[in-house]
Amino acid sequence: MPQAWGGCYSTDPMANEPGLHQLRAVIEGQEPVFEWLDRARDQNKLGHAFLFLGPPGTGKTRTAFAFAQELLAGGDPVAARRVARNQHPDLHVL
């Protein structure tokens, strides 16, 4: 079953999707968000949940999934695919 990814539907959500570090060049005006996420990760001050809010078209979904992949997959391609398909047991999208 296709899953939503970045506002489109694809049978392979990982195809051509940038990672969190690459999104900086794609999503403009969100530098404070990326800096906050980097700081939280680097200082190991991660909450049990993250809520991405904002107007449509600001990159919330892409950023959230990229951040989830970075945290939950850690370079494991199988885990990264599970995150991208919203099938990872530790990822809950509301």
Summarize the model shown:
This protein has 94 residues and is mainly alpha-helical. 43% of the residues lie in helices and 6% in strands.
Explain this structure:
This protein has 94 residues and is mainly α. It has 4 helices and 2 strands. The protein has a two-stranded antiparallel sheet with strand order 1-2. It is globular, with a radius of gyration of 13 Å. Mean pLDDT is 78; it is low at 1-16.
Question: What does the secondary structure layout of this molecule look like, with pairings?
Answer:
Layout: E1 3-5, E2 8-10, H1 20-26, H2 31-42, H3 60-72, H4 77-84
Antiparallel strand pairs: 1-2
Helix pairs in contact: 3-4
- The helix content, as a percent range, equals 40-55%
Multimeric status of the protein: single chain
Rg, rounded, reads 13 Å
Which band does the percent of strand residues land in? 5-15%
Which shape, going by the Cα principal axes? Answer: globular
The average pLDDT value, as a whole number, equals: 78
Q: Order of SSEs, N→C?
A: EEHHHH
Beginning-to-end CA distance, first to last residue? 19 Å
Helix/strand/pairing category: mainly alpha
Strands side by side in the biggest sheet: 1-2
Number of strands: 2
Low-pLDDT runs of 5+ residues are 1-16
Total DSSP helices: 4
Question: In this structure, how is the largest beta sheet organized?
Answer: 2 strands, antiparallel
